[in-house]
Every structure is written in structure tokens, then in C-alpha cells.
Amino acid sequence: MATNNVHYHDPSRRELQDVLTCVRAKRTIFNAGYLLHQNAERYLKEAKEMERLFHAYPEAIANTQKIADACHFDLKSLQYEYPDELVPEGMTADDYLAEVTFKGAHEFFGEKLAPKLEKQLLFELDFVKRRGHAKYFLTVHDYVAWARSQKILCQGRGSAANSAMCYCLGITPVNPMKYRLLFSRFMSDDRPEPPDIDVDFEHERREEVMQYVFRRFGRDRAAILPTVTVLQSKGAIQDVGRAMGLQVDTVKKLSKAFGELADEHIDEETIIKLGLNPKERHLRKVIQLTGQLIGFPRQLGQHTGGFVITQGKLSDLCPVFHARMINRTNIEWNKDDIDALGFMKVDLLSLGMLTAIRKAFDLAKKHHGLDLTLANIPQDDPKVFEMVTAADTAGTFQVESRAQMVMAPQLRPKNFYDLAIQVALVRPGPIQGDMVHPYIKRRQGLEPVTYESDEIKAILERTLGIPLFQEQAMELAIVAAGFTPTEADLLRRSMATFKFNGLVSKFEHKLIGGMTARGYSREFAERIFKQLEGFGSYGFPESHAISFAHLVYVSCWIKCYYPDVFAAAILNSQPMGFYQPAQLVSDAYKHGVSLRNIDINHSEWDYTLEETKGKFCALRLGLRQVKGLREEDSHFLTAPRTQAFTRMEQLAEAGVSQAGIVLLAKADAFRSIGLDRRQALWEAEALKDRPIGLFAGQASNSAFEPQLQLPFMQLSEHVLQDYATTGLSIKAHPLRFLRPQLQKLRALTTRQVKGVANGTYVRLAGIMLFCQRPGTAKGVCFITLEDEDDTCNLVVFKQNFKKFTKEILYSDVLCVEGRVQQEGGSTHLIVTRCYDYSRLVGQLTQDKAAEARQLKNSTAAKKVDPYADAYFENTLSAEDLKKPFPKSRNFR
Amino acid sequence: MSYEELQVTSNFSFRLGGSHPEELVDTAADLGYTAIALTDRNTFAGVVRAYVVAKDRGIKFIPAVRLDLLDGPSLLAYPTDQAAYSRLSGLLTLGNLRAEKEKCFLHKQDVYEYAEGSIFVIIPPEKITADFELPKKLKTR
């Protein structure tokens, strides 16, 4: 058979292919030698050219055609079949689904169903029957029911999930009879694709559900979809740079330039800034090849939880392989491939908030005697909405972000649906599509709400005339512009998938044309289109918003009424959400929860609630907060806790490792046996010569030594060391100790800033919590700064960010100057200058670390004090103290 | 009788192919080919993407594979019908599940078991040596 052994579609790709060869062989282009192809001929040639090359072997040419003709298999003919076994023998899937659905309906609504509900259920069941998807719903119902039986919290979302049927099947807890029914509207007969229900599970327990699915259907019939991870700019430049023989530090510089806060593409200016010559040919080639390599598949990674389940053997359809994670098998095709072939997939996603909510329910039961479920939390409580409006939402689901907190006082949610709108509205898409401000104006009654026609009113009334949800966009396209449901669905898809970005524009002509033809003004049509285009990648389906809003409400309700329970639950589910433990703990304190320090005799691994103090239970910090402590050590500590430890040796006898004891001492966890941090460290050192074996239990040598009077540690030092060892301190805020100096430097506190008049020029210092540069904000950087009082939002415009990047990214204590903007109940500081005040942190300690270094380096000191070395080894090194505060969370 | 390109490596043979499957099929259609195959190394990971473009451009797409064996020369395998395709898919599954991720351990013996209905082409080694010979059971049909 004649063949050109094609490796690229075009001869120009030969260079890239050589680079790939180098990456594979870990060589550079200069020493790869014979590993590279000899020439650039492995491209897709014209048939004529191939025939000329092989003219001596016409048979070889003919063979290619023969083989091609003999292959009759078309991927289209792969037929997907739903699994069968969920239906009891002698019943059809449709009948069984109807039976299960009505059984659930009676459980929720009693013997007598409202005629409206019954009609809706029958309509939905009939629709599912016509489309042949009964087994799909039964499959989802099966694992959701199993999860329920295991007390795993879960909640479904997606267009099909917000149906009366899914409510009755227990897949979603949001009663669709209360809200609009979205199910029927767009599941038109035009769309042959399978329905889509995503189910979120507690992130800590999703694996159990996944393993259940594997068990239920068998490993040969169920597998996880992979994601094809592709090379991003950072990885691509590393690959190309190394292969092209650039120096290691140059490669590092370049890949850093693509880092988390930098701009995506490399422009000449950036290259000059890196100290490189953008005109240099070798470098230009590197950048050109990098451009080609971006987007290349790198590996088949783990999907977030999409499953394919089949009736027959899965490997008949597609090869199966082992995932990196133990006990998981994947197929080779991803979500898009599956979609293209029309296979069913189900999504088992994980959600940290569900874990936190479950933990909160457990704690509420234990300490407050409440029996809470997702469904029985009291609905429509005005206090909850007041709390959201006041932006007092740290730690809650979705509405905790900076943007949400800024918008909440203006949006003033009053009911559940308002929350759904808030979740969907305060996102990059609507912000970019310029929908937020019109909506707020209309909501506050500053702008009249008008509709172009009654049909538009019907679609947009619930969002005050602003198209906000994907469903509305589709409805608009159908009703106002004459799209067929299929076309509208294409529109939805192009909005939903980022890689088709730009595709929305293709609909511009059709949408505007269709609307003007139906008598709408061109201006109105263009505005609608612009709003839809703004949806771009981030459009949000109403069905998701409603499901999310439910969790927003539940988490806010818990926070509102039981801040003690809420704080413990969130802290025990870390890492999740926006906030660091330090802020979550101080937030609980602000809500009247008393705090208890980490202690060997009282703390568990997790945060726990202790006896009621005031309105709420006191929150005991958990051992999980001690940096570097192994969970195993904490079990040795907590398991034998029948009587309190009174001496440090008892810890070692219980099995806690020496390293663990030192970490606990550093974290100041020995107060209950009368040792402060420094004394505890001293004692921990003595443990090393503890009598063991035959002599265990006898007093050690050190017991006969005279007690040393150790130098007293200042509170400021303790706070700093708390931060360094546990990431937070409940003793005080570090800024408190800097305040006298800051006052001399004329820096205000956040509370003072909130009180000054609009436009005042102020100086403010604090610790940076977040630094965010959303792609939608044209290079503007949003920073949240914290001091001993509160937090303050900073806005840094692009040129100032460029000017002060170093100060912003690398300061422990950041000081800023700028004008205060008071607007709609929130305060912003528009930053014009930044200073690095990190040196002030050094004054918090008496600089023992520096002293230590001096002592260590002098042998004379050692002679005088043989313990000096050991003692200072166990204190924090200068390195530890250099970055005492948790790194701010920086993201786009 | 005209030529069709039946040995095509895409970038789903990681760090080997220099083009996306979509680009390859698109170019084949531009050049007037009526059919094209994709033969990535021990994987079908790229075939659906290629198929989608081929369907769009109206040319025939043959999902195929290059089998790299532990104990023999590499083979190109072309399934003639769905049953043969399923067998090849099963063969790759067998090899995948024997090995850790991103590896596929296959022997000549396995190929014999799953060979029915597929056309095989043997890829000659870089250098033809005396011990290179055709295994008897595998013949071009």
C-alpha cells in the first residue's frame, strides 16, 4: 500500500513537528539529530503527486483505493442504548417512570394532587415517552435515590431538572410549581439530543456515588468521560522554548509573562520589558511556534464527573482506559465527541457547599437540636434577605464574592427569585453585556420599565425587561425574530460554549432582520442583540440559577440564624469559597460567636462547637489549622482523651510524633497545661531524652534541671507566630500593633474611610485578601484590603496597576492612597499610589530570628549556651517570618 | 483508481503528530480526496473530531488505528464493518487496562484474537533486516 505516512497537514508544520519530537525526546533542536524526520515531506500531498512518486508501483496506489472501498464502517452507525435493568420485568420503562413519579408526587403533595400538577406531570411523561428518554430519568433517579439512602446531600439542575417530574423523583428540591416551568418550553420535538441533568453531590462523598454507579452497571458498561486537556500558553512556551534551546531563565521569564495576572498574548512591549529583543529571529520563531502549539491536546484528563452508561459493552463503542485515580475507568472520547454521536451522559458533579451544608445540618442537630434538610429550611424569611442586602455574606454560596457584595445593597433582594436573578446577574457575561446597571435602575424605579410589545412583556417581565437568562434569549429569538426552536437551540449552544465564541455574531443578521421584519425598531433589535452577544461565554440558564439560588438561600439562612454552626461547617470544608480561615473566623466573632484557641486538650482535628456562650456555641479552633500537622498525629491526641493531658510526655506516650509536638508547641496549643509557646518549645526539646523502653515512665534527666526563666514573648510576637503557624490569630489583628506607626504616617482605618465624604483623598494600610483582575474589566484590578476593623474595596486602574505591580503583588502590608468613592451604600477607594509597608512587620518581633542567626554563626555562643542551637532551631526561622500572612488569593 | 491517504498521524498521538485531526481532514477535502483515514498510535481518541469535519465536508472517513506492539512490527488496522471496529476497540481496551494510563500493552497474539473483519497493513521497520518477515496469519486481503 502506498502511503506518505502523514504527520501534519501542511509542510509548514514540519518545524512544529520537530519541536514535538524534541519535547518527546527531551532534546533541543540542536542536538536532536537523527531523531528528527529527514525532510518536510510528511504532509498531506495531492493525490497526483503521490501517484507520480509511486508511478513504478501502480498496484500500491490501487491498494489504497481498495482498502478504502472495503471499509464500510461509519461512526454514525454506532447506536447508543440506555441501560435496561432499572425497569422491573413485565413493565415498560415509560409505565415504570410514571409509577415512580406519581408515587413521589403523592409523597410530596398528599393523596389528592392539584389538577394543574397532574396535568403537568402527564404532559411531561408523555413528552419523555415520545422522545424515548424514560430510562434516562430512571438512571438519574436510581443513583440520586441511592445517594439519599446514604445520607449524601445532592441536588439536580439543568433544563430537564426543573420539571415537576424531577421534583417528584427527588432529583431537585426546588418546587417547580412555585416558579415558572421551564421544562416544556424548549424541549421541543425538534431537538433530538438527550436531556441534560447535572446532579451536584457533596464533594467529600461524590466518589462513593461514582463507585456506586460503577458497581450498579458494571465497569464494562459505565465509564467516566475524560477532558482533553490542551496546552495553554504557559505550557506551550515552556515546551517550545526548551526545544528551541533557549536558556532556562529565559524560558522561565517568558512563561512567567504568561502568568496568572499577566495579559494572555505576548506583545512586543512585554518582551522588551523582559529584557529580550522582540525583533530577534530565533525568539520570533519561538513565539510563532508557541502560537501554533497552543490548543494541542496534551493528555486525556479527568472530567468533572460525566458518565457514559450503556446497555451493551462500552468497549464495543470506544476504547476504555485506566484513569490516574484509583478505581476509575475512562473512555477515550470527551463530552463533545459524545454529543456529536448522540450518546447519553449523566453528570455527577461535586460541590463543596453541599459538604458544608451537610456538616452544618449535623452540627445544628447536635448542638441546637434541629432536624434540618434542604427542603425544610423555612422559606422566604425576610431576615435572610436583609442580611444579603447588607452584604453580610462572607462564606455563603455564590453571593459571597466581592462583586456580589458590591451589588447586593443596590439589588436589594426581597424573595427567592430575586436571589436567582442576583446569582445570574452578577457575573462576567451580564456585566459585559451592560445589563447590570439598567436592571438596577429599573429595580430601584429610576428608569421606567417598558416593553415593546405584549409578547416581549411575557418573556421579559420577570427580569424587568432585561434579557438575563439563556432561556429568555431563546424565547426572544423564537417569538420576536422567528427562529425555529432548532435555530434557537443553536443560538443557546453558541452562547454556552466558549470555544464557539464569536459564533453568536453569526446570528446577528438573522436576529436583527427577523425582529425588524416583525415590526420592532432596529434600535431595539440591535440592543437586544448586543445584550445577547454579551452573554457570550457566560450566559446562565435560569434553571441553574434557580437551583443555585436554593443553596444560596439555605447557606444564608444558616449563617443568619446560626453563625456558630455556619462557621464550623465552612471551616471544616476548606478549602472552598472565597475566604481564608482567618476571615471566616473573624467574621464569626463579629456575629457574636466566642472563639477558643487551638489546644491539645480541647481541639479536635475539625473545628468544634463547645458550650453555649451568649446566644451561640463557642467555636473551638481545630487542629486542622496547624500548618504541617498530620491528621494521624491529631488522632493520637484526640483518641485517648478520657482524661486531660497534664504533662507533655503524655503526648509522646500516646504516639504523637516529635515533629507533631513541636508543631503544636509552635502553634501555642499547650496553654491548658500552663505552657505558653516559648515554654512549650523548650519542653518539647527536652522530650528527646525521655526515658523509653524499660525506663518508660521514669522522670527524665531534664526534670532535675533548674527551671529556666525564658524571655517573655510580646503579644505582637505571639500574633505574628500564630499567623505563621496557623494562618490566623484570635489574640488580635496584627495591624493593631502597627496602628501607632500608621497613625503617625496618617493612614486611616477602614472604619474611618467608610465615614469620610465622597472624594476625600486618604491613605489606608492593611493586609491584602484578594486581588482580582477580571478579563471583563479592561485591566482594572480589584483589591480587598483588611485591617483590624474591617475590609475595604480598592480599585486600581490599568496604568496604576502596571506602575505598582510589584507593591501590589509582593507587599505583606500594603499602603495605598486615593480618593474615596461613596456610592449606593458601598465604599471604594480609587487608588492612585501604592507603597510597600512590609518593613513595619519586622517591628512586631524583637527580631529573635536575626539574633538567632548571629548566635548560630558564632561558635563562642555555642560554648556558652549548649542549648542555644536546639532552641533556635525550633523557633521560627527568619524564612518563616518573612511571609507570615496567608498569600492573597489572586485570580482573573 | 486514485490514491487515498490511509496513514495519518494527528496530534492525538501525543507529541508525534503536528496537526489537529480537523486540520488534516479539512486539507484532505481541499485536495479533493474522497476518503481519509486516521491512524493514531493505539488510540481512537481523535476519530470523532475527524469524523465531524469529514461529514461536514462530505468525504468518507475511516476510523483506523496504528497498533504499536510489544513484540512485533507496527500494524495499521482498518475495520471493514462495525463488528470489526468493536473488536479493535476491545483490543485497545485490553491493552489499556493491562497498563497504566497512557500506555497500551499489546502482543501479536492479542491481535490474532481480535483481527476478524479488519484489514491490516504492516509497517516496515526503519531498516529492513534479515529477521523482518511477514507473520503468516496476517495478510492483506
TrEMBL record, chain A:
Class of the enzyme per the UniProt entry, highest EC level: transferase
Residues annotated as domain DNA polymerase helix-hairpin-helix motif: 592-680
Bacterial DNA polymerase III alpha subunit NTPase domain mapped to chain residues: 96-349
Keywords (A to Z) from UniProt: Cytoplasm, DNA damage, DNA repair, DNA replication, DNA-directed DNA polymerase, Nucleotidyltransferase, Transferase
Chief location bin: cytoplasm
GO cellular component, one term: cytoplasm
Protein name stated in the entry: Error-prone DNA polymerase
Organism per entry: Mucilaginibacter pineti
Upper taxonomic lineage: Bacteria, Pseudomonadati, Bacteroidota, Sphingobacteriia, Sphingobacteriales
From TrEMBL, chain B:
SMART domains, sorted: POLIIIAc (SM00481)
Molecular functions (GO terms): 3'-5' exonuclease activity
Record-level GO BP terms: DNA replication
Gene3D superfamilies: Metal-dependent hydrolases (3.20.20.140)
UniProt domain Polymerase/histidinol phosphatase N-terminal: residue ranges: 4-71
One Pfam assignment: PHP
InterPro entries: DnaE2/DnaE/PolC (IPR004805), PHP_dom (IPR004013), Pol/His_phosphatase_N (IPR003141), Pol/histidinol_Pase-like (IPR016195)
This protein's name: Error-prone DNA polymerase
Taxonomic source organism: Mucilaginibacter pineti
